[in-house]
Backbone:
């Protein structure tokens, strides 16, 4: 059997998914099931004067209707699971249904439960709510200003936390030869998973157990949080994520809707389902990014960066979502030096409450916001000292011999060869030829640009001791059980909760390789708290890194036991047994052999086991990583800008990523493509806008630009391979690299194209209108052309 | 969004003012206004039916006439709420005389929020302008009718 690790196996899950045979939460139908609809505030900020469900209760099919007043004594507040240390964090109470105030458009005020979804919707329309509207604030910087409307009365200045990290860099800035300052707006994004959220709850009055099927990336975290909120002990609460159609971070959070249906199912003693509409997905499912950043970089005239200083106002929305406080702090502030050997750095973050949809992790979660600012600052610095951005990168990139490299905040970058990835990218793009062509085209009034992003990110979340130290209210290790059945078939139970990443295939490949069992003999089970001991879920590019490593360790336990059984059967010492490709054989005597399947059968029959050995064959392991992993690479974007229309065309996109050992190259390619379109989407197309009253102006696909396949060239991808030295599989994680690296590459390219107009920075997304206006404000392109 | 404009009515400013104050006339002329029930002096409970494209909804609301100065001006405050969201209109209406006819000038602001605003954002301003101009055209017709009867 050839190596399974490293081969492009087709996705095992696609056999059901692409034939429409997957089962998503909304596909669940239970006898006697009812349907919930949520009454949501059309105001971003208002006092609830009256919520009257009496008319709704008279509507056909309506079984029950509840308000915040009905829930408030029985359902606890929804907590965040991340409390950054030394940040004086204030956690505002977050009721599942608002009691006397609504704080963002979409905040739930009542639930109507009916026999059909349509009757529930009609019932929702019949609920009478009287609001007294109040002024709202949506921008995180504006929220920090004196006199801004307060989101929560007792949280002064709307500051949920104030977090600082790093040394005192003032002295360096005071004496630096060159200081570059820039403000960046990381616009708010909507994750837009293909499957909206859904939840089905069922109460079993006989056993007093509640089962919740929900679209979640982390069923065990949901169980832990919901147990506290609902007062149902963990052993009586089962959370199941069946097929989940994408999430990108938006299904980490423990949402009010899931709590409402759980409470209602118990109260009514009937199963209750709620499924989000696309409109609700835009208004109430967590958003991403949304920073106002003030950045300064100090350096020498000859191109050595000496310090970087970041002050960020991070929008958290109206309440603190599950992972929200960790995203703009730990996952952002600790890595603002990027892939550069910057000796000193500091980051200061204001976590701001606003009258907007809660913000949580979105693909990359903090690291795109950090990578963008440092990659842009390198270009602005290069411009300021009149050097080529590539030269500045070459001067400042951390050298390969410096690994493991400790960054200014104490993170230890595990391994890297940044120059190697850059060199590989420059084999694909002839940089000198590009600059010549650029110059020629400028003479003709045509503007092309090139942008680099020589990024690093931290993922594979993560070492649990560090998780605790940075305020995550949980562990970040992972569990695995590899259960070999009597016939030698294998079921793998993982605490990771893949929802589109294809780990049913990746994990089977790891087991197939290590146990020598064909991949089709392996089934991967995930997402059910009643089947899986414990798990922390799928996010932060951790699934293969941490979950995969746990499977590897479980495999070792299985192999160790099977080896003993084989040695016993072969009547030789354990050390005399070799194990290769599923066969145990006596060293030097390959004919004397026991297959893995035979050893498995012996383990179960237990007719003749080594003395003292327990029957059966399975291994359980809990893997707690000793460090994060640090994927890196070089991305190059080439764009052309039409000066007459402001239209940006992405002409080429080159991505050289080093994600360590690759288990399935096809899945890695898919992850990179997906990440790229989301990252490029942020650079050029996507962005949430609120009006001054907190109304979401971009609440549908008419007004929120989702990137389409036709917007992109064929991506040119390549890899270098620098295994993670501390990960048992050598993998580093790939889920977020594309979204982290690509945004600054594209913006750098557009700014390079616009350099002749004297334009150095524009806020994202770089829509034709914005680009055209910038060109026009600089006197238009004809003028510049004439001047050349 | 801002709403402003003016309309000539072929009656005296006094008559025009009276028309604008008459609930029966308002129900006839204002698009989507189904009923006006007086609650107190200058305050009415309003029932409206408005739609943007395919998203139509019934709204319950209030209409208030504030600071009325006979034959000269008043301030209209309308709030409505329904499944499609909410509408709030604040509008100053001024009556003056021009070429022996009433010139009605209006200037104000409308806020629309909730699901309709979320999906119909691009159309709202156009729709609002259209509804308001329909209203004033209907008023002009009403005025012409009154002038004829008089």
Residues:
């Amino acid at each position: 059997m050839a190596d399974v690790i490293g081969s492009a196996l087709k996705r095992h899950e696609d056999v059901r998914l692409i034939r429409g045979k997957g089962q998503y939460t909304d596909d669940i139908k239970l006898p006697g099931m009812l349907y919930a609809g949520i009454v949501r505030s059309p105001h971003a900020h208002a006092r609830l004067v009256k919520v009257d469900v009496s008319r709704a209760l008279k509507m056909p099919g309506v079984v029950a209707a509840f308000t915040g007043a009905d829930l408030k004594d029985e359902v606890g507040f929804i907590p965040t699971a991340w409390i950054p240390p030394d940040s004086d964090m204030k956690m505002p109470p977050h009721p599942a249904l608002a009691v006397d105030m609504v704080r963002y458009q979409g905040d739930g005020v009542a639930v109507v439960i009916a026999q059909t979804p349509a009757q529930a919707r009609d019932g929702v329309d019949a609920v009478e709510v009287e609001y007294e509207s109040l002024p709202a604030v949506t921008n995180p910087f504006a929220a920090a200003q004196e006199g801004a409307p307060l989101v929560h009365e007792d949280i002064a200045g709307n500051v949920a936390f104030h977090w600082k990290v790093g040394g005192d860099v003032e002295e360096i800035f005071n004496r630096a030869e060159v200081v570059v300052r820039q403000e960046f707006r990381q616009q708010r994004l909507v994750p837009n998973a293909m499957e909206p959220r859904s939840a089905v709850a069922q109460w079993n009055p006989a056993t007093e157990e509640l089962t919740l099927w929900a679209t979640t990336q982390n069923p065990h975290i949901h169980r832990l949080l919901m147990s506290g909120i609902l007062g149902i002990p963990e052993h009586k609460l089962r959370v199941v994520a069946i097929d989940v159609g994408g999430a990108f971070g938006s299904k980490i959070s423990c949402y009010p809707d899931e709590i409402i249906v759980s409470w209602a199912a118990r109260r009514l003693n009937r199963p209750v389902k709620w499924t989000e509409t696309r409109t609700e997905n835009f208004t109430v499912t967590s958003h991403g990014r949304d920073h106002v950043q003030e950045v300064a970089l100090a350096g020498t005239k000859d191109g050595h960066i000496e310090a970087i200083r970041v002050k960020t106002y991070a929008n958290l929305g109206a309440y603190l979502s599950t992972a929200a406080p960790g995203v703009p702090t730990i996952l952002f502030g600790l890595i603002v030096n990027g892939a550069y050997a910057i000796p000193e750095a500091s980051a200061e973050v204001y976590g701001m409450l606003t009258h907007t949809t809660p913000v949580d992790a979105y693909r990359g979660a903090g690291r795109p916001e950090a990578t963008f600012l440092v990659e842009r600052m390198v270009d602005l610095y290069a411009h300021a000292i009149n050097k080529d951005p590539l030269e500045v990168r070459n001067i400042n990139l951390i050298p390969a011999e410096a690994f493991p490299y400790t960054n200014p905040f104490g993170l230890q970058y595990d391994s890297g060869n940044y120059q190697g990835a850059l060199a590989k990218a420059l084999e694909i793009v002839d940089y000198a030829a590009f600059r010549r062509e650029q110059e020629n085209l400028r003479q003709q009034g045509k503007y092309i640009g090139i942008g680099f992003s020589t990024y690093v990110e931290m993922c594979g979340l993560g070492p649990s001791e560090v998780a605790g130290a940075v305020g995550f209210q949980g562990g970040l290790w992972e569990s695995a059980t590899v259960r070999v059945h009597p016939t030698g078939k294998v079921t793998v139970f993982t605490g990771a909760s893949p929802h589109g990443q294809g780990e049913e295939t990746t994990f089977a490949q790891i087991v197939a390789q290590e146990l020598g069992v064909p991949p089709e003999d392996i089934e991967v089970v995930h997402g059910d708290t009643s089947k899986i001991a414990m798990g922390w879920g799928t996010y932060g590019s951790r699934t293969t890194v941490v979950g995969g490593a746990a499977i590897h360790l479980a495999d070792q336990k299985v192999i160790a036991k099977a080896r003993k059984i084989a040695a016993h059967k072969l009547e030789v010492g354990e050390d005399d047994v070799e194990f290769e490709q599923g066969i145990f054989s006596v060293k030097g005597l390959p004919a004397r052999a026991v297959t893995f399947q035979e050893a498995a059968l012996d383990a179960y029959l237990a007719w003749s086991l080594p003395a003292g050995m327990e029957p059966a064959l399975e291994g359980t392991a809990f893997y707690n990583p000793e460090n994060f992993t640090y994927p890196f690479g070089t991305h190059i974007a080439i764009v052309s800008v039409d000066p007459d229309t402001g239209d940006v065309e992405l002409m080429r996109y080159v991505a050289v990523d080093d994600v360590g050992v690759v288990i399935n190259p096809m899945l890695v390619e898919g992850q990179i493509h997906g990440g790229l379109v989301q990252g490029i989407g942020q650079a050029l197309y996507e962005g949430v806008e609120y009006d001054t009253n907190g109304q979401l102006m971009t609440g549908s696909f008419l007004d929120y630009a989702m990137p389409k396949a036709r917007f992109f060239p064929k991506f040119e991808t390549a890899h270098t391979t620098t295994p993670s030295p501390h990960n048992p599989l050598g993998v580093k994680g790939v889920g977020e690299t594309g979204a982290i690296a690509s945004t600054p590459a594209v913006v750098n390219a557009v700014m390079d194209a616009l350099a002749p107009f004297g334009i150095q920075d524009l806020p994202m997304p770089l829509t034709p209108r914005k680009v055209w206006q910038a060109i026009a404000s600089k006197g238009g392109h004809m003028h510049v052309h004439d001047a050349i | 969004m801002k709403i402003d404009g003016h309309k000539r009515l072929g009656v005296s400013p006094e008559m025009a003012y009276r028309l604008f104050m008459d609930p029966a006339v308002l129900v006839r002329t204002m698009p989507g206004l189904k009923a006006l029930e007086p609650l107190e002096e200058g305050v009415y409970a309003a029932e409206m039916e408005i739609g943007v494209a395919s998203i139509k909804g019934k709204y319950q609301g209030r209409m208030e006439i504030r600071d009325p100065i006979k034959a000269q001006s008043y301030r209209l405050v309308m709030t409505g709420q329904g499944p499609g969201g909410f509408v709030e209109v604040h509008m100053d209406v001024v009556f003056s005389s021009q070429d022996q006819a009433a010139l009605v000038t209006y200037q104000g602001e409308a806020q629309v929020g909730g699901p309709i605003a979320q999906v119909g954002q691009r159309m709202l301003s156009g729709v609002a302008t259209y509804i308001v101009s329909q209203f004033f055209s209907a008023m002009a017709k009403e005025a012409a009718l009154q002038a004829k009867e008089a």
User: Anything to note?
Assistant: The mean pLDDT of chain B is 88.
